[in-house]
Amino acid sequence: MAVPAAFKENGGLSSTDSGALSTTAGKAAVSSSPATPGWTHAAPADTESRGAWWTRFNDPQLTALEARVSVSNQTIQKAVAQLQEARAMVESAHAAYLPTVGVTTDATSLHDSANVIGHQQTAGKSFGDYAVALDASWEPDLWGRIAHENDAARAGAQASAADLESVRLGVHAELAVDYFNLRGLDASKRLLDQTITDYRQSLDLTKSRFAVGVSSQADVSQAETQLQVTEAQDIDLGVARAQYEHAIATLTGVPASTFSLPPATADFVPPAIPVGLPSELLQRRPDIAAAERRVAAANDQIGIAQSAFFPDLVLSATGGFESSTLTNWLTAPSRMWAVGPALVGTLFDGGRRRAMTEKAQAQYDASAADYRETVLTAFQEVEDNLASLRILREEASKQNEAVASAQKTLQLALDQYRIGTVDYLEVVTAQSTALTDERTAVDLERRQIDASVLLVKALGGVW
């Protein structure tokens, strides 16, 4: 196995475009060239525990939901069944090392034709043929075909095990993202609820001023419109919240109609990230391990194809009893046996074996390319989320300053409206700006926590 051996000073991960690849079995290898440096050999560590990484987010409700995923999610259950199937294939391949033993029992009544020349002793007579025999055959693995088949099956089972871990990691991350998105909507609703309360107070103020002739009917209409639009936005949040709630229900293996999450406050502070994240962490990514092991399986397929150029040696033996009557069937004189080797080879097949070998080589090359692409994509995902966290943190800081400025502007507009120096349009404009800025600030908090979850997934678990 190989990964890009780059590690930036600022703690981020980086990658290059091509390089070397080797498998855990030490068979499949694509050498790096001097013109394309940057890859280094590595060993998969996908069997290491990823831990209950979601506890780093300090949310008991999320922790409880994540605990239900491993036992109830149907996508995980399917991956478990596929792993069991792959392990059964390993046992099936291993059975080829052992001899095959069978039993044959035959009881036949025959009547020979009287008009067949050469059957003088049995012509026109009826007789029986009773036989019971044990048949054994064994094929020595002279050219490594069985060994390659076993190695390919084991690599396939290891890839399925890595696929299972990849599914688990993905489902846990998907649940966390959906959960924090739902809690982000809860935060937006709390903001809108408070804003609606403030807008109602502003409407009451406008109506009072209109009653004494200080404000116009247009001011009242503007205040009512502002309130109604905000109430509509508040109601609309229910659609997305219900969808996230239903998605969480499906991930935890329960019908959507029977599941609900009451509104709650979530902590949107991402866990602390170390200054440096070494590239070796990516060795824990199960999808990288699965891709690497599929390269090993493809390499063994080349060996299987090449073994077809050599003859197969089969050792067989048969022994038992055969008689024409039941009375002396199982007696010593009825014993019979046969032992002998058979060497079977193909002299001409029109180039079929050569074509199958070339096909296996092409499949290996494709698997190696898939492996490299998986590694490069993993580095991209880490870089993307590291960049997202850094940029969103800076953006959130500026957005909080914008929120404070918008609130100050709104308060000034309300004060000036009360003393009659500005009309209500100034208040409406300030209210819209303040609400937009506050909702953006809430969304930035939610996006930071989402990026943290996706970074955990990109690293294959907790760092």
Automatic annotation (TrEMBL):
Gene3D superfamilies documented for this protein: Outer membrane efflux proteins (OEP)
Keyword terms: Coiled coil, Lipoprotein, Membrane, Palmitate, Transmembrane, Transmembrane beta strand
Domain of life of the native organism: Bacteria
Disordered as annotated region, ranges: 1-21, 28-47
Biased composition (Polar residues): 12-21
Coiled coil: 379-409
Main location group: membrane
GO terms, molecular function: efflux transmembrane transporter activity
SUPFAM superfamilies linked to this entry: Outer membrane efflux proteins (OEP) (SSF56954)
Compartments where found: Cell membrane
Mode of membrane association: Lipid-anchor
Gene Ontology cellular component terms for the protein in this record: plasma membrane
Family: Belongs to the outer membrane factor (OMF) (TC 1.B.17) family.
UniProt name for this protein: Efflux transporter, outer membrane factor (OMF) lipoprotein, NodT family
